[in-house]
Amino acid sequence: MSARRRFDEELDLLHHELVEMGSMIEKAIKTSFNAIESDDEEAAKYIIESDKAINEMERKIEARCLKLILRQQPVATDLRLISTAMKMITDMERIGDHAADIASICLDDEKEKNPEPFRIVDNKILEMANIDLEMVASSISAFINDNLELARTTIKTDNEVDELFYEVRDDIIKGLKSDKISPSLAMDTLMLIKYLERIGDHATNICEWVIFYLTGEHKNKKLL
After folding, report:
1. CA-CA distance, 218 to 166, in Å (whole number)?
2. For a tag site, which of 50, 122, 124, 201 has the least CB within 10 Å?
């Protein structure tokens, strides 16, 4: 088997692992949000524990990338692909962390002190979560399918997440002023929407690295 063929097979494995890691973080986001909606502490504990598997996958992909660089002599395009994968998994791992952060809100002792039922999810927050899921899936798809237009479109979608974040934040402030929600519930809600906003940011980062991989350009600066 030629060196190039072995290299291409390693790249195929890299793509497969990235898809697997992408599926893991999508599931983590969905399950953590469902835990919040249903106040399911067992599901929350599961997501927090399963974050270890996402971290392990990050290390596995990183090791494969380093192996490709050290044992082969990748040309510029190959090097961009490997560099992109290494950058992507950092953001993917952080998305997994935020999913665990969301789940941990279920386990907050302060929620027991809220006079109202622990239900912090409204339509705007649900929309934020759904957009996040679409962004994460699209960012991974853009990389796997070399889809430059999808990467650029996904980046623009982050504006919707940001707008919803500010709307919900303002709703929380109004609720506090009118004593419609307790301070502890307001804090939990602010944390939730901040984690969702950050997931959108990380999906955007992934898309920016996809653009770099496909064009050699990143944030208006030529790198390779």
Report:
1. 28
2. 122
Determine which helix (DSSP H) or strand (DSSP E) holds 26, and give its type and residue range.
helix 3-38
CA gap 218, 185 in Å, rounded = 40
What is the spatial distance between Cα 104 and Cα 192, in angstroms, rounded to a whole number? Answer: 10
The DSSP annotation for 159-180 comes to HHHHHHHHHHHHHHHHHHHTTS
Among 2-6, 125-129, 161-165, which stretch is predicted with the lowest mean pLDDT? 2-6
Residues 6+ apart with CB under 8 A from 150: 138, 141, 142
> pTM above the 0.70 mark?
yes
Contact criterion met (CB below 8 Å) for 193 and 125? yes
Burial 88-110 (b: 16+ CB within 10 A, else e): bbebbbbbbbbbbbbbbbbebee
The residue behind tokens 């809600």 is 189
Q: What is the DSSP letter of 219?
A: T
Q: How far apart are CA 39 and CA 35, in angstroms?
A: 5
Nearest to 17 by CA among 85, 90, 80, 91: 85
Owner of token pair 């973080």: 25
Summarize pLDDT for 146-161 with one digit per residue, the tens.
Answer: 999 999 999 999 999 9
